[in-house]
Amino acid sequence: xxxxxxxLGSRPARRLHLETIRTGFTIIEVMVVISVVGVLIAVLLPxxxxxxxxxxxxxxxxxxxxxxxxxxxxxTDNNGRLMPGYLSNDPxxxxxxxxxxxxxxTGEPLDGPSKRRWTWRILPYLSDSVDAxxxxxxxQYIDELRGTDDFAYIASVYPSFGLNSEWLGGMxxxxxxxLHTLGQFTGECYYSQRLAEIQRPSEQLxxxxxxxxxxxxxxxxxxxxxxxxxxxxxxxxxxxIDDDGEPSADADKNGFVxxxxxxxxxxxMLDGSTRLERLRDLNDMRRWAxxxxxxxxxxxxxxx
Length: 304
Hints:
Blueprint (H helix, E strand, L loop, with lengths): L26 H51 L35 H4 L1 H4 L14 H8 L7 H7 L3 E3 L14 H9 L18 E5 L2 E2 L6 E2 L9 E2 L3 E2 L27 E5 L4 E4 L1 H4 L22
Antiparallel strand pairs: 1-2, 2-7, 3-4, 5-6, 7-8
């Protein structure tokens, strides 16, 4: 019977030759890798930037919706009266500042301009959450001021949204009261005072993304507490129009509206709806004043 013995031992021994293992890359390989990474970054950065922009606009729209709802809740709690944008320092005025008890973000009682501006007066209608008042860049700016003596004052100037208080609720103090003063002279009220007066709540602008001059500085801050309509009360266009026929993107030339979302501003209407709108969409007095019946409407006051 044949033997099944292994013949491995009879094979000649093989010598293993190990090749030298390279531990680095050639310059060409490094350059190729850098080129590939560069291409990937170039492809991904716009997408990442777009994602961040969409996230910021979504955050701001949610905050604007909450603000609009808080604004109407205030009116509901006050027999339909719209919130004044700025309180009066005149004791004979129904919106005299001493008639209001206003607390700051940490519960401290406020007085002076911090109290007169709408910013902290709406806070109880936002569940005392400042997230609807200051978002994205505006939040970063305000957070840097926390703990300072002027925090309540400066923060009242720079909420992320401006209020259309010129035509809703009224501005009743100092330099902001032109329309209110005109009404006192003619015996008429040109701004809406009550919720029931508004004829087009789905088009009635209440809040919009805003930008204003920096406090004691030369730059701008993404946020400002009030807006100015595209037309003066009685004399025509207020917003500056560029050579291309579009309203200027400079906030100090377009009523402090900030088109910070790809040339669009977040807007909130009285019915609680929100939009992203271009400045040209807002260059229409029918969006601002309840009595306006055309885009370039102005008041024609009847003198007593």
